[in-house]
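Q: For a teaching handout, I want to show students what a protein-ligand complex looks like in C-alpha cell form. Below are the inputs, and the small molecule is zinc ion. Please produce the holo structure.
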Amino acid sequence: MEIDIKYRINLSGIYNAMIDICPKCGNRMVENQQLYKNCKGVASHPGMGDVLVFECDKCFKTFFFHCTESFYHYFIMMCEKWKKNRFYN
Ligand SMILES: [Zn+2]
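A: Here is the structure, written as C-alpha cells, with zinc ion included.
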C-alpha cells in the first residue's frame, strides 16, 4: 500500500486490538470521531506492516492498530476536515 510521506511517523506505543478504547485508561474515543482526531499518522511495524498510531486524548497513552487500505483512505478523508489536526502542524 502506498502511504503519503506526509503521514509517515516513527512507530511508538503498544498494539491495541480494541482500537476505539484506550488500553491504559479505558477512554472510549469513537464518539464525535475523536478516534480520528487522536490519530498521529502511519508507522511501519516490523511484523505487522503499516499501522495507524493513536494517542489517547485523556491519558496520552500511545498505541497502534493495523492500517488497512480502506481504513487509511477513510482516515485521510476524516482528517482533512480538521484543520488543527496534528498532520497539518
Ligand atoms: Zn487513555
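A: Two things your students might notice: The beta strands are 14-15, 39-45, 49-55, 62-66. The chain has a mean pLDDT of 84.
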